[in-house]
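Example 3.2
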Amino acid sequence: MNTETMNINTVGLSDLQTPVQVRQRGGGLQHTIATISMRAELREGAGTDYVDRARIFIGQSLDNLSIQSFREILPRLQKELCASSVRLSMEFPWFINKQAPVTGTHGLMDYKVSFSGGIGEDPGFILGVTVPVTTLCPCSKEISDAGAHNQRAEVKLNVRFRKCLWAEELIELVETCGSSELYSLLKRPDEKYVTEQAYNNPMFVEDVVRKVAEKALHHEEITWFTASAESFESIHNHSAYAYVESEDLGKAR
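Structure, written as C-alpha cells:
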C-alpha cells in the first residue's frame, strides 16, 4: 500500500484548553477553562488547514456559552470545515457556592461539567457532570465494634434530555445519592453532622449507582443516561467501581 496516496478524512484536535464563559442557572456567566476535543469527517476538497479554521471558529463561539448555543455551533462548524459530520466535546471545572449543613459557612465547591454534541453520523447532545460524594462501607459498619471505613467517591452522570436541563440540577440530583455530600469548608459542628450522616447512611458503590439511576429514570426530562461511581478506597490499594446504562427512555414515555 502506498501511504502517500492514502486518503485520510477523519481529522480533529484534542485537549485544546481555552477560557470560556458559561451561562449559569439563575442568570450570569461563569468564567472557567474548558478542555476541548473535536473530530470531523471531511468531504473531498475540504483543504488541509482544518485545525487553524477549527481553532479560530471555536474561539469565536465561547463568550456566552449555553447548551443551546453549543448545539448551534455544530452545523456552523460542520459548514466551516466542509465536513460530513462533526463531534465536539468540552469539559470544564464548575464552581457552586455551597453552605455547610449546620453553620451555613459559605465555600466554593468544584465539580466537572461536560458538553458533547454531534451532527451527521454521530448526532445528539449529552450533558455530563462529575460529582464527589462520601461513601461508607455497609460491611465495615456491620462487622466493626466501632467505626466504619469511609472515603471520597466520584460519581459521573451523562444524560440526553428533552427540553431544558441545567448542570446544577444534575449535580444536586447526584449529591443526594451518596452516604453524604461533600463541602469545601466545614466547621466542627458541620464535621460532626457529615460524619454521622455518612455513618447512618452506609452505601456500596453499587448502591450509589442504583440510587442515581432510580432518580434519573423518574426525571421527566431525561431520555437516556449512563451513571458510574468510583470509590477511592481508604483501606485498600484499589478503587471500587460500578456502572449502568439505560435504554432509550423517550420511547417509553
